[in-house]
Fold these 2 entries.
Entry 1:
Amino acid sequence: MKKPDIKIPKRTFIEHLQDSFRPEKLPTDDRGRMRMVLDNLIFHIHPPKIPERTLRWTYTWGLGGISAVLFGVLVVTGLLLEMNYTPSPPQAYLDVIDLRTDIWFGDLIRNLHHWSGNFMVVVVTLHLLRVFFTGSYRPPRQFNWIIGMAMLLLVLAANFTGYLLPWDQLAFWAITVGTSLISYIPVAGPFISRMLLGGPEVGSQTLLSFYSMHISFIPIALVMLMSFHSWKIRKDGGGLSIPKGLEEGEMTEVKKVTTIPHLVRRELVCTVTVLAILFVWSALVSAPLEGIANPDVSPNPAKAPWYFMGLQELLLHFHPLIGAIIIPGIALVALLLLPFYDSDDQSTGIYFRSRKGRYMTIMAVVWAVVLVPLWIILDEFVFFWTEWLPGWSPLISNGLIPLGIVLLALFILDRVSKHWLDSNYEERILTLFSFLFVSLVILTIIGIFFRGPGMNLYWPWNMPSAHPV
Amino acid sequence: MVEETYQDENISDDGDKKVTRRNFLGMIWIGLGGIAALELGGMVLAYMKPRLAEGDFGSILTVGPIDDFPPGSVTPVTNGKFYLSRLKDGGFLAIYQKCTHLGCSVPFVQTEGKFICPCHNSQFDDTGELLNPPAPRPLDLFPVLIEDGIVKVDTGKIISRNHFDPSQVVYA
Ligand code: FES
């Protein structure tokens, strides 16, 4: 028997390569567009079709995509910066000065890197909020929530290691204060901090190891988790959670549209907008740089990087073991396990769960805005636990007692929302989360803008300028 | 679809788990893997162990003859990152400048006669004892060695303490 005569067109290597990135002809029908997504190296992180509703800007705000764009900018500018940087004091600092004065566009590239990194912390946090408030962490997406949390920690680690690299006073003392928190971990703390710093203090060894982590391990881990994260979006429930209105019940028919052009077009618009804003911002606002690091003179005040200022503010009110380890540790674990104790997906896709939920969120914000500053002022001027309880271990007088009061307050708030305001289980979780998140934001704001020399409270417009003693 | 019943060969008929040769070897492999992982982890830790340079912070520093430090004085020794405090009774303490709160360098304010941390206002007296939190404990010490009237300080050993105690003071 003769074999049927099938012609396989001969293609060159270049053609194969081209095909993986773009087809010879752009498809004009839906079938072709879906094929293109499936066959294409870059596009295939998307499903060929997506539910139309998930395209709404006001649902996702494009936050995941924006962080990916920022990551891209960070990789490119990071590579350029690396080529002009020696991770060893004092040359590191001199190299940064060179960037600003001697190298074409050096300052712009440094600013782009600095601002993308800082915006990234903001954007991924907003992304976490979006996922929380729409309930999108619930099964089947629970594993992606955990990957997301891991990426959040990596983003913070990337920022923190990068913070040291300019080797100026700001960097040196922020990292000193930040790493000192670690030594309060019971038992292993001092050992871990010594390993991390490569000695008892921040020094040249610290700079070198932070640099290596910053340019290799952390970004590689992030790339891997990012791919995992977007692949899981396709796999779990076939895309993002679908937005729903308040009164909408079970969704039976989900209208789908092709990824090309609907999603891809939006992604392009988003990318271009982010890049434009980033460039303008970086051209106008310079990344801070102070004098070269001097290990003998601490500036007054010495502040941690801004995203850890909430933590540092906590430390002014609690014994370090409670403020730096126990409270953040519990919060982190509670957040990580969220999909396992709040897994009913009835309200998934509805912003703030329900009408009651919206009301409770506003309530929680108001409570936090009133109670947190009140607590800070009381603790600063009225409560003097250590003086009232002389001879008690500070772990109790300055740790467990205030912690007890805070927990009691949280408990009362929860009772109020349950019995007086009649919230159900998921609305109570929502209320507590909103309260705690807004508290963190307020603590951070107070730490950044209201703390001056000696970590005393000042009005931002009366702030004495920081001078080394 | 046909349901297939699957008989686990490692479970004997009366339901007990039995150790077959196959899964015994499997266990050994896992054990060996665990040991190898521990060894590799140990290697990495040893590799990362901080190194110290001679004559620098971290080694034994010669500070000077006893008589250079009058009783009741606190003298900064910058290359050793500590203050040599000579108490009124003539005893010596080498006080590490790193704040026990969050690691700022604590200057000795001569006019007030105490250490005041610029970062969060912890205060310590001339023995390093805690006067004012948030720091949780007194400033750390380095061992002081006095040989032939010369004060030496071993900056490689950090002594942390919960309270000042006269036994910490070194006399000539
Ligand atoms: S670091 Fe000295 S008081 Fe905080």
Entry 2:
Amino acid sequence: MGKSVMIKVEKLNKTFGDLHVLKDIDMTVNESDVVCVIGASGSGKSTLLRCLNFLEVKDSGTIYIGGEKVERETHDLNEIRTRVGMVFQHFHLFPHMTVIENIMEAPINVKKIPKDQAYKEAKGLLVKVGLSDKESVYPGKLSGGQKQRVAIARALAMKPDVMLFDEPTSALDPELVGEVLVTMKELALEGMTMIVVTHEIGFAKEVANGVVYMHDGRIVEVGHPKKIFEQPTEQRTKDFLDSVL
Amino acid sequence: MEWLNTFIKSYPVFLKGMWLTFELTAVAIFIGIFIGLFFAFLKISNIKILEWIADTYIFLIRGTPLVVQIFVFYYGLTSLNISQFLAVVLGLAFHNGAYIAEIFRGTIQSIDKGQMEAARSLGMNLKLTYRRIILPQALRRAMAPLGNQFIIALKDSSLAAFIGMYELFNVATTYGSNTFDYMTYLLVVAVYYLFLVLVFSILVRYVEKRLAVSD
Ligand SMILES: Nc1ncnc2c1ncn2[C@@H]1O[C@H](COP(=O)(O)OP(=O)(O)OP(=O)(O)O)[C@@H](O)[C@H]1O
Ligand SMILES: [Mg+2]
């Protein structure tokens, strides 16, 4: 159907000392796909995302971003990272900057976009995440859900082709999870390509068109959410789902 | 009220001495901050040889008395036709630089790793990340310990008297020895030091407050 490949991973391996954290990971994510990554703590989900954003140095394997084989040696990783947005579990907003400054920081200083244009775009993003009244507030004054929505806006400000989410709602009080998931769902509906590490099975069922189950550094099972959640092939997937549901 | 009389009569000379003390300290701290930042970056560079250079510098400074360092700078630099003032200032600056380096290293490393990652994930390079994200936060955190160090530097500047700088302490001992009334003049000079320390503390607190507005 002519959807282009956005991210492709081949035989990706990553170790921390003696610890083999990612084992021969193969993965393909097409444009406008929403792929949820699930798996037990320590199975390597975060490490996988961090490799995709080159925050972690892989041991071996190949990563293609937008069809292009990206290597640390030959590519400007800073430029690559502007195309791959990342949202963290603990937000990591810049506490010494206001909400709007957080969003404008990278467009102005990395992309060299004129201030007034960056400001206009940032305001647009704040409207989009429903926080237009928080423009001049410092992150310390925001709730967790608001912080995460600002973090999403900050990543979107670079106009990335893909967004990576690492447990974006895990640090939130239960009543604040919904607002962040709504924002993410809207983003998915707009056609953003997303890889989401999450334990929100409801979100995965509703929004994702692919689920990846990781266990002990390997991708054990991949499939449509319906299939993975209702008829998993692998016993390990079954056991994991029983434990989280 | 003999003491008060002495205090009032001697104030022109003491004010001059206080000004010199202030100048010595302020310039030394100003230079010391840059020295401190420089060595702090060497220490966090993850490059063995640079770390070793920083460690050696800090070891030498911490391991020897300030008065020795001042004499070394004094004899070393004045022999190169550098003014007495600048020689002492540099001595004080390099002394304080070692302590300031440790302060900066500590506060830079205390910034949550997530800040670095968030900035890098937005495509910011290392230099930009330090300049825009890490350092502004680290400097804020450094204000309190830096303030402490400034006050120590202020009092330490009295050692400049040993090489004949006519700063506060030298004024006091000179008057003391001329009149054989050391105690009175030492108490007088103590008041000037207390005043300076007070001014420094207020300044530091003011800056700290201004910076803290955003947190
Ligand atoms: N920088 C690091 N140094 C050493 N070991 C690490 C490092 N980062 C991760 N690990 C280890 O790698 C393994 C995988 O970690 P990772 O964070 O990718 O797991 P995860 O699936 O995201 O887990 P969680 O659900 O707890 O976030 C863990 O055993 C972890 O302890
Ligand atoms: Mg994780």
